[in-house]
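re: ur question from yesterday

yeah so i grabbed the chain u mentioned. its 285 aa long if i counted rite. heres the sequnce exactly as i have it in my notes:
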Amino acid sequence: MIARSARANARIPLFSILAVVFAACRYWFDPLPDGTRPFSPPPVYQVWWEMVETCSGLTGAMSSIEWAVVPEVAEFEHDGAPASGYWSRTHQRIVLAERASMDGGLVRHEMLHALRTELGHPRDMFLERCGGLVVCLTSCIRDGGAPPDHGAAVARVLPSAMLVDVEVNPAQPGASIGEGHFRVIVTATNPSADSVVVQLPSSGDTPPYSFSFKVQGTKFGLWFTEFAWDPGITLFGPGAQRRWVFDFTVKDTFDGVRGLPAGAYQVQGGFGPALSAARSFVLTP
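ran it thru and got these structure tokens back, copy pasting raw so excuse formatting
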């Protein structure tokens, strides 16, 4: 009886070791999507990296990251699901779909993983400190967990109670500055000394509208709004500020998305129906 018990106990660590070795080998090899090739990050990636360092409070060398792209696709299969990018802890590698490689929010999301040197999406980092700077949707929001309970005692206010502002960064953008990349940053600030929940109006079957921008040029206008996929975006602490970063590029002609030709523009930011004052800026060729 004692002999059989000792034999059974001997099998348990052996099985555990084999399981760990199998899992470790699977993770170590980390097979790349078909066609993946090395990628030299453009200079704007350094700007984005520093932005993520600032919001996260973490520091690291972007040069330590190995970069790769999957050519001519907007997404690829990774770990059994479609993805536009991922960070490999084993290889300190960021892999991006080529057509998504200039999506600032996506790239900064993977940069945040690299700076944290951890997987997972803690709410404090991805939805609070770096919220609006890195994209965080669906599984990222679920991974972050539920937002703090608003509580019945927290005052409910309209979006008009927020101070909404907009800035263009850099302040004098142009085709010869940062390879033509610039950002429109919209902020909403709670001027109250108390916590509040902003009651964004319903948009039907989808979540309410949250941050938005409106850019008006001499020949055309461009408007876009994000949805409040994460309900935590409506909760503001005393004097707290939330923001959203919209990435743009100076191009020869308007591309219908975020590529704008040189010229004079006005921009407004919004949070729900509340709008900032209009700001003028000039894109130089």
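noticed a couple things. Helices lie at 2-29, 44-56, 104-116, 123-129, 139-144. also Residues 1-28 have pLDDT under 50 and may be disordered.
anyway ttyl
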